[in-house]
Design brief:
This protein has about 675 residues and is mainly alpha-helical. It folds into 2 domains: about 1-170 and about 210-520, no CATH class; about 535-660. The chain has helices at about 1-10, 15-45, 50-75, 95-110, 115-130, 150-165, 175-185, 215-230, 230-260, 265-275, 295-315, 320-335, 340-355, 360-370, 370-380, 390, 400-405, 410-425, 430-445, 450-460, 475-510, 535-545, 555-560, 575-585, 590-600, 610-620, 630-645, and strands at about 170, 525, 550-555, 570, 625-630, 645-650, 655-660. Strands 4-3-5-7-6 form a 5-stranded mixed sheet, sandwiched between helices. A two-stranded antiparallel sheet has the order 1-2.
């Protein structure tokens, strides 16, 4: 134990602590504040029905004001010279509580129902809190200082994160919405922002979901593309995600300094690896490096850890500047994704309860105040979802399904163990109690099987599973792993550390086949800047070039979803099944049915002769100038399309083009 303390002392003396801490805070504070100011400016533009042209004029001032606030916040951080890690600290974990946690996880893996597991977990945490007791004092625990060595490791992590984000490609058809919002703003700068449909090109059609009116990230992409030049999809896929990825290690380090103060650099590295593990369709891993070109992925990967870090920093310091960072982070979260409307308040509530202690009730209450902004945004858009309730009615709402899908079918047991075990593995008493409260609140609210249906009414059945994003479970897993290695090293020396480290590596090796980087997750690696299905995207570009002016395009889903990613594009008859269901409630029922079935017709689906003739007759009504069909459908439809004036002109990448001149 003595040689461990001596080694810590040798490596803890920082060089130029003020400069290093300033840069450390600056990396996260500036982007957070700048984007928060951009979000407020955009929300004002939406409320006032102002155009994108107007937003591009005020946008630079908003961004510069945010950057100035970020610099001010970073400069006022108290970078005391040679901060010392508080001595607490010879604490060894209670094996009894860890054994109970492990037993619950094992029983769950062997088939115990989720409700029984939940009850056992709640009883475990309540019993432990009652037995261990809330500390009478919360001694200040300063993190190990930011030395040049630790800064160098963070820079390496930043470079690795940026590199893997750039080369990891997982195309996502939701680019039709997100990149489409940016391209539409550039194509129609005179229209009010976030007020109209960006998919179909139908006049007077509102956005597909009301919640899209609060998301401002895509308009920032449009602003950067217009201000600096280049296609929006290039900014969305190649530039911004790479820059955000470089910030991720600093965001997680901000949180891990509070949870694992002695080994926060190692915990940061572990957290970044854990973040990649659940590689299922809506798993946490698919809202990290491989999809960092979406605002909701930035919210999960950077926004939530920063929100907890800023909240707990404020509860320690009581500084107005730290409180402002909570405000800016909350506002920025809403701009990144409308999911923050309900995730941010839950996260802030969890952070406030975990950080509360006697004499600091006012600070905990102030921590909750920023939640008013996302809640106000939620109230503003809530009425628009009433028409969509039938679309969501068939979706299952089960807590255990959400846990399995978000944390991964195989990785969920590691995540749940981290949730239950991290409070009993960390060294510091204050952190121990904080993690107990976080675990208990998480079980009582987002992970509660008995109120999950109620939560779906406060959100929607479609996205209620995202409430699990409010749990800082990645940080808890990382804290548990690093603390376990630390404890093994202290109790059994180098051999114990080697065994514990090998066990962690084995866990990662086993779960790597299910990670977000696995081939089964439809991930490839390339130096190409765009994350698209190349053949379909090129076909979409050819279809746009071949569509007569003012005419509409009818194409199968594989091609139609990429058309909105281009600035200059024709209107679309249909895009994909999912979008047709959501947008159809905004159209007359007959039109919605015609559009959907026309797409199905050219995709190869067969209809009764009478219905097929009705659909073909509707082509002129919708002014369809170019039709793409699959090769199979072309054989069956070629003659009847010719009767309606469409001639076969070319075949490309398995799709056949039929063109007509619009009279």
């Amino acid at each position: 134990m003595n040689h461990v303390s001596e080694l810590e002392a040798k490596t803890s003396a920082p060089a130029q602590p003020g400069t290093l801490n300033f840069v450390f805070v600056l990396v996260t504070a500036c982007p957070t504040c700048a984007f928060a100011f951009w979000t407020v400016a955009t929300h004002f533009a939406v409320a006032a029905h102002l155009s994108f042209e107007w937003l591009t004029r005020i946008g630079p001032f908003a961004l510069l004001a945010g950057i100035a606030c970020g610099i001010f916040a970073a400069r006022t951080i108290n970078a005391a010279a040679n901060p010392q890690v508080a001595a607490s600290l010879k604490f060894f974990p209670s094996w009894k509580w860890l054994a109970f946690a492990a037993a619950l996880i094992l029983l769950r893996a062997l088939g115990m129902g989720y409700s029984a597991f939940w009850i056992g977990s709640v009883l475990l945490l309540i019993s432990a809190m009652a037995r261990i007791g809330r500390p009478r004092e919360f001694p200040s625990v300063s993190p190990a200082p930011l030395t040049q060595r630790r800064a160098f490791v963070l820079i390496l992590l930043a470079l690795a994160s940026a590199s893997v984000t750039y080369v990891a490609h997982r195309p996502n058809v939701d680019d039709a919405i997100y990149v489409g919002t940016a391209t539409d703003a550039i194509a129609h700068p005179g229209l009010p922002v976030l007020s109209h449909d960006v998919l179909y090109g139908v006049p007077n059609l509102p956005p597909m979901l009301p919640s899209y009116t609060v998301e401002t990230y895509e308009l920032l992409i449009a602003f950067l593309a217009r201000f600096f030049g280049g296609e929006p999809i290039f900014w969305a896929h190649a530039i911004i995600p790479t820059l955000i990825a470089a910030i991720l290690p600093f965001a997680w380090a901000s949180l891990m300094r509070l949870l694992v103060p002695r080994r926060w650099v190692a915990a940061t590295a572990v957290a970044l690896v854990v973040l990649t593990l659940p590689g299922v369709s809506i798993g946490l891993g698919n809202f990290a490096f491989v999809t960092l070109f979406y605002g909701k992925a930035i919210l999960v990967s950077a926004g939530i850890p920063l929100l907890y870090a800023f909240a707990w920093n404020f509860e320690e310091t009581g500084s107005f500047r730290d409180w402002l960072l909570i405000v800016f982070c909350t506002i920025a979260g809403v701009g990144l994704s409308s999911t923050a409307i309900f995730v941010a308040p839950v996260a802030l509530g969890t952070a406030a309860l975990a950080g509360w202690r006697e004499g600091l009730t006012r600070r905990s209450a102030l921590t909750l105040v920023p939640a008013a902004y996302p809640l106000a945004c939620g109230l503003a858009v809530r009425s628009g979802f009433r028409a969509l309730e039938p679309v969501f009615a068939h979706l299952p709402v089960r807590a255990h399904l959400a846990v399995s899908l978000v944390f991964g079918e195989h990785a969920q047991y590691i995540f749940l163990f981290g949730l239950l075990a991290s409070p009993f593995l960390v060294r510091e008493r204050a952190v121990r109690w904080k993690l107990m409260v976080v675990a208990l609140v998480s079980l009582l609210v987002p992970l509660n099987p008995f109120i999950f249906k109620l939560l779906s009414r406060l959100t929607t059945r479609e996205v209620v599973w995202r409430i699990l994003w409010s749990v800082p479970i990645v940080a808890m897993v990382a804290a548990a792993m690093v603390s376990a290695i630390d404890r093994a090293s202290e109790q059994w020396g180098k051999r114990g550390r080697a065994v514990a480290g090998f066990a962690v590596l084995c866990i990662f090796a086993y779960l790597s086949r299910y990670s977000s980087f696995a081939p089964s997750n439809d991930v490839s690696f390339s130096l190409a800047p765009l994350r698209v299905r190349v053949r379909d995207w090129e076909t979409a570009r050819a279809a746009i070039d071949g569509t007569p002016p003012t005419a509409a395009l009818l194409a199968p889903e594989e091609v139609a979803v990429w058309v909105p990613t281009f600035v200059h594009r024709p209107s679309l008859i249909s895009v994909r099944e999912f979008y047709d269901q959501h947008t159809g409630v905004q159209m007359p029922p007959e039109e919605a049915t015609d559009r959907r079935e026309l797409r199905e017709l050219v995709s190869g689906q067969e209809f009764a002769p009478q219905r097929e003739q009705e659909l073909l007759n509707a082509l002129a009504h919708y002014q369809v100038g170019l039709i793409l069909t699959t090769a199979t459908a072309a054989i069956r439809l070629q003659d009847v399309l010719a009767e309606h004036g469409y001639s076969r002109t070319r075949e490309e990448n398995g799709f056949v083009f039929f063109t007509v001149a619009i009279k």
